[in-house]
Write a structure and sequence with these properties.
The protein is α+β, with helices and mostly antiparallel strands. The protein is 38% helix and 21% strand. The strands form 3 sheets. It has a 4-stranded mixed β-sheet with strand order 3-6-4-5. Strands 8-9-7-10 form a 4-stranded antiparallel β-sheet, with helices on both faces.
Length: 316
């Protein structure tokens, strides 16, 4: 899709043609969206809710490598990462905007693949793509996603709410995304040295999916609400457990104690760690991109918390 003579160059359709192409691919899912793509700005009716806004930028060569990241997966992941931040505030994502800068080596078909992933994520999480910008880049691709969510003022959860004695919980398992990244990097290195060798990715499906197609934990937020369990603090695990624990402790002006044996690590991650001679605990603590939720709850809410199967108490 990059530089292929059988594909359509961006010059052939121009910026406005590209915008029209993107607009035609977008569907709206929320009644709060009054105006989406097609005007000078999008319009939202928040209906007396608190508006939550987060943004992230992804730069080719820094945050992603096109030699092993499919464009469809890149689009999906870019959206998922931002939605995870909204869920971490105990809010519901409603809209996103997407701005991209691309070089001339990218074809129309490449951009279509990127937006196929973006639209797939929007559909999966009931989010409207309502705008953005497109421009040229001298080299590579840059993606900027802004996610907008809504919440009742009394439902919002911040990093600084943890109190002494609160239980520290984490969802899912940690380190798998980093394990997947290391496998991709290893196979790239082998290919560079021996171009005739095909990548060997058999048996790594789980860790590769965690790296290439992460899923924000909307399901956990739903369960917390059903149980009427409001965390005292919360954030998503995008930079590794150690970093996120530090953020919550610093914001909440308290310390923590963690039982290392209770940190959830999947068997696939252990297998990759052993194969690559990396400590699995290092992957969990410092790997990042797991997009799980780290949260604290009152001790009185322990019985409610244990009703969520994929929520693990790891300390206090």
């Amino acid at each position: 899709m990059l530089g292929n003579s059988d594909k359509t160059s961006l010059e052939q359709i121009g910026e406005f043609g590209l915008i029209a192409l993107i607009k035609d691919s977008v569907k709206l899912y929320n009644k709060q969206t009054v105006m989406g793509i097609g005007d000078d700005a999008a319009v939202m009716n928040p209906a007396e809710k608190q508006v939550v806004i987060t943004t992230d930028m992804l730069v080719e060569g820094v945050h992603f490598d096109m030699s092993y990241v499919p464009l469809k997966h890149l689009g999906y992941k870019a959206v998922a990462a931002n939605l995870s931040d909204v869920y971490a505030m105990n809010a519901t994502p409603i809209q996103i905007t997407c701005s991209i800068a691309v070089s001339s080596r990218y074809t129309v078909e490449a951009i279509e693949a990127l937006y196929e992933g973006i639209n797939h994520a929007c559909k999966a999480y009931n989010v409207d793509l309502v705008g953005g910008d497109t421009t040229s880049s001298l080299s590579g691709m840059v993606i900027g996603i802004t996610a907008i969510g809504l919440a009742n003022a009394t439902d919002l959860v911040y990093r600084q709410g943890a109190k002494k004695g609160d239980l520290i919980c984490v969802t899912g398992n940690l380190g798998a995304a980093y394990a997947g990244l290391q496998i991709l990097k290893r196979e790239k290195s082998i290919y560079i040295e021996n171009p005739g060798v095909q990548p060997d990715l058999d048996g790594y499906d789980y860790v590769l999916e965690r790296q290439l197609k992460p899923e924000p934990r909307a399901d956990i937020i739903t369960q917390l609400r059903e149980l009427e369990l409001k965390p005292t603090s919360m954030m998503d695990v995008s930079d590794g457990l150690a970093s996120e624990l530090h953020h919550i402790c610093k914001a909440s002006a308290c310390g923590c104690r963690i039982d290392a044996e209770k940190i959830p690590i999947d068997t696939h991650t252990w297998q990759v760690a052993e194969e690559l001679n990396i400590q699995a605990m290092t992957m969990a603590l410092y790997g990042g991109e797991d997009y799980e939720l780290l949260l604290t709850v009152k001790q009185d809410d322990y019985e409610k918390a244990r009703m969520i199967a994929d929520l693990h108490v790891i300390g206090y």
